Amino acid sequence: MHLDDFFEARLPAFREDTDWEKVLRILVLYRLLSPGSGWRLHRHWFGPTALADLLGADARAVQADTLYRCHDLLLPLKEELFGHLRQSWSDLFGARYEVLLYDLTSTYFECDVPADETDPRRFGYSRDKRSSAGQQSVQVVVALVVTPERLPLDYETFPDHTADKTTPAPAASRRAWSPSRSPATARSRIGSTAPGCARHAHARAAICCAPIWRRTIPS
Question: Which one has a higher pLDDT value, 196 or 95?
Fold first, then answer.
């Protein structure tokens, strides 16, 4: 997929004893093999592995502030990265984008609600029932768009008090999934027991609101 070439051309050059490409490799491997917090990576996970020898990195590559700074460097590359992935899915697997699957999840933060009103972290409905014990968590909604083969195309975040049925339109309207196709949006069936699928009158692609991790594709 040439991701090494993609990031080598865009991440800052090696400096201040920090090789950002190696830091990114460590973050990706950690997420694939044993996902957890950055604190756990720094304090417990990295040391017993062979990554220091394999990558030629030391403990400075997994300092907590270094890990978070690497995330900050990746965020501006989001649009370019997903464009690169979409082209790769087409070239390698013949992926097509007439039908896309869309689902929501949420993730929580152990913090107070930020004072900045533009920050999406808010109290809201907990999909993992964390509020059932009488406590609410500060959360965000994460929307994911994939192909029917579960190849990721994009994600979007929303404040946790956002109504589920309002999320597909803004998540889809800003994206160009393919030069010749424009995505449709499904507004009304997210959150119901049956999946929903909608197509705009002039759209050549449809976004289906279906559970991504069950192979449920509306006919």
Answer: 95
Q: How many angstroms separate the CA atoms of 212 and 39, rounded?
A: 29
* Residues 69 and 101 both lie in one domain: no
Residue 103 domain flag: yes
Range list of β-strands (E), the chain? 99-109, 122-123, 138-146, 152-159, 196-198, 206-209
- Residue 112 inside a domain? The answer is yes
Single residue among 50, 77, 104 that ends a domain in this structure: 77
Where helices occur in the chain by DSSP H, the ranges are 3-8, 20-33, 38-40, 51-55, 64-74, 78-93, 168-173
Is the confidence at residue 29, as pLDDT, over 90? yes
The 10s digit of each residue's pLDDT in 123-165 is 876 666 655 444 677 888 888 888 888 888 888 888 877 777 7
If asked whether residues 60 and 123 sit together in one domain, one would say no
Q: What integer is the mean pLDDT of 101-112?
A: 82
pTM equals 0.68
Alpha-carbon torsion angle 95, 213, 182, 163, nearest 10: -170
**Residue 17 belongs to domain spanning:** 3-77
The answer to whether 123 touches 113, Cβ cutoff 8 Å, is: yes
121 and 193 in a single domain? The answer is: yes
